[in-house]
């Protein structure tokens, strides 16, 4: 093989090595990015993108390695004895000492770091499966921030809700003050004439003609946000379960099997609505819905 051909081959190999190093480095950054996003509270799209970068970089690096650095084709080697000649031994020592061997070892190191980073990042989601120390998992799943009692009901802008803000023809979504992002805590308020109740709402769920129930459908957790005018029934848009607010929010059609849990409320001295405690039953769907 001429020197010129050999130089071209070496230049190609160095270019491939640089691309492989870039791919493994990108993979490592993706794995680290996934771990950081997860630790900071998680964001599904960002986590998915980081994992795609991590695995994509790893796959690209391995593919480039296989395509450009591994031997290809069939080879026939003449065998002239079992011991290497002096010339071959010197050649091998020269190759091992050359920068090419050092670069390959660096690539192996980067591959190890990339795979190790992905494995380490996978441990973070596993940690979420562990039960928090000292916390009963059933208790954690079946209670909400309302349990502390006395919390004011605030609207979507964080403004405390007065009993006079609640009307008959619209439902008002509310959250526990200080916990606007608690996924299991949203509730709704609507004003009803007490004499129309066929079943009195569970204890404390009505105050000054205003009732409060969990916003989460007991079938699969969608927000039950459609008030059917004139019927005092609330419709879940996902699978059309209907709940009768005059009959303690029991399901009257659709797949939901439990009434909406009520939220015990009272009006404080300043006219603001506050919760007395947690919902009358765990909100949304869950293992407690199963027969
Ligand atoms: S989630 Fe409401 S009916 Fe299915």
Automatic annotation (TrEMBL):
Which residues are in the Rieske domain?
A: 174-274
List the transmembrane segments.
Answer: 20-40, 46-67, 107-126
Q: What keyword terms does UniProt attach to this protein?
A: 2Fe-2S, Disulfide bond, Iron, Iron-sulfur, Membrane, Metal-binding, Transmembrane, Transmembrane helix
Q: Which InterPro entries match?
A: Rieske_2Fe-2S, Rieske_2Fe-2S_sf, Rieske_Fe-S_prot
Q: Which Gene3D superfamilies does its entry note?
A: Rieske [2Fe-2S] iron-sulphur domain
Q: Pfam families per the record?
A: Rieske (PF00355)
Described function: Iron-sulfur subunit of the cytochrome bc1 complex, an essential component of the respiratory electron transport chain required for ATP synthesis. The bc1 complex catalyzes the oxidation of menaquinol and the reduction of cytochrome c in the respiratory chain. The bc1 complex operates through a Q-cycle mechanism that couples electron transfer to generation of the proton gradient that drives ATP synthesis.
Q: What name is this protein filed under? A: Cytochrome bc1 complex Rieske iron-sulfur subunit
């Amino acid at each position: 093989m001429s020197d010129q051909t050999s130089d071209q081959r070496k230049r190609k190999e160095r270019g491939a090595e640089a691309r492989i190093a870039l791919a493994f480095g990108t993979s490592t950054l993706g794995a680290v990015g996934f771990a950081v996003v997860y630790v900071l509270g998680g964001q599904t799209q960002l986590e998915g993108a980081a994992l795609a970068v991590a695995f994509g970089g790893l796959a690209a690096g391995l593919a480039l390695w296989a395509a450009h650095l591994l031997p290809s084709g069939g080879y026939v080697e003449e065998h002239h004895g079992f011991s290497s000649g002096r010339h071959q031994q010197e050649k091998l020592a020269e190759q091992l000492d050359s920068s090419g061997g050092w670069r390959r070892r660096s690539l192996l190191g980067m591959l190890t770091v990339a795979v190790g980073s992905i494995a380490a990042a996978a441990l973070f989601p596993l940690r979420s499966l562990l039960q928090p120390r000292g916390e009963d998992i059933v208790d954690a799943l079946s209670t909400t921030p309302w349990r502390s009692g006395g919390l004011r009901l605030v609207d979507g802008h964080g403004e405390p809700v007065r009993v006079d803000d609640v009307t008959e023809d619209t439902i008002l979504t509310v959250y526990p003050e200080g916990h606007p992002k608690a996924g299991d805590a949203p509730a709704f308020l609507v004003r009803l004439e007490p004499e129309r109740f066929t079943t009195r709402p569970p204890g404390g769920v009505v105050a000054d003609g205003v009732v409060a129930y969990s916003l989460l459908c007991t079938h699969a957790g969608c927000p039950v946000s459609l008030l059917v005018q004139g019927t005092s029934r609330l419709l879940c848009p996902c699978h059309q379960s209907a709940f009768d607010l005059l009959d303690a929010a029991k399901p009257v059609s659709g797949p939901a099997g439990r009434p909406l849990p009520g939220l015990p409320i009272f009006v404080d001295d300043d006219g603001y609505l506050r919760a007395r405690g947690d919902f009358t039953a765990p909100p949304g769907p869950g293992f407690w819905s199963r027969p």
